[in-house]
Amino acid sequence: MSEPILIVEDEFFIAFEMQNILEKNGYAVAGVAADSDGALAKAADGVALALVDLHLRDGLTGPQIGERLANEFGITVLFVTANPLLLGAGIAGTVGVISKPADPNSLLAAVSYALERRRGYSIDPPEGLSCFN
After folding, report:
1. Closest C-alpha among 110, 115, 111, 112 to residue 130
2. What three-state secondary structure class fits 10?
3. Could you tell me which of 87, 24, 81, 20 has the C-alpha nearest to residue 32?
4. How does DSSP classify residue 108?
5. Which of 27, 49, 57, 88 could form an S-S bond across to 34 if both were Cys, CB 3.0 to 4.6 Å?
6. What's the rounded mean pLDDT across residues 39-44?
């Protein structure tokens, strides 16, 4: 069983597609959250990785959610957004960003990279992932 992944995405069909891709490839999805409250409530459930969109049901809260998940809960954070430029040089404590729409191979490569990095391995990031540090 893989380490649990939280999807922070307010668009149901995108979240559902990401969940299906991850689960079909052996990853455990801890849940889906559509806003700040949902994401922070699920953070205490032993989540290893969070895939976070920027624009959520409660506005442009993704950057703040990602920072809190990383720095307060120790969760590895990847942003998945159609607006990567909104992140500028990055968010402290987070790994990086992939652009939506992300094809399954790009999503899986980014997830694999983030989990390997979480385990302490030093590997090259996959194509399509912009790392912050």
Report:
1. 110
2. coil
3. 20
4. H
5. 57
6. 92
Q: Distance (Å, rounded) from C-alpha 16 to C-alpha 12?
A: 6
User: What is the tens place of the pLDDT at every residue in 14-37?
Assistant: 999 999 999 999 999 999 999 999
Which tokens is 108 given? 């899986």
Q: According to DSSP H, which parts of 2-121 are helical?
A: 12-24, 36-43, 62-73, 104-118
Task: Locate 85 and state its tokens.
Answer: 């430029």
Residue 33 Cα to chain centre, angstroms: 11
Give the other-Cβ count within 10 Å of 49's Cβ: 26
C-alpha–C-alpha distance, residues 7 and 117, integer Å: 19
The structural domains of the chain, ordered by start, are 5-131 (3.40.50.2300)
Distance separating alpha carbons of residues 27 and 32, to the nearest angstrom: 14
41 DSSP β-pair partners: none
pLDDT in tens, 45-97: 889 999 999 999 999 999 999 999 999 999 999 999 999 999 988 898 899 99
Whole-number pLDDT of residue 105: 95
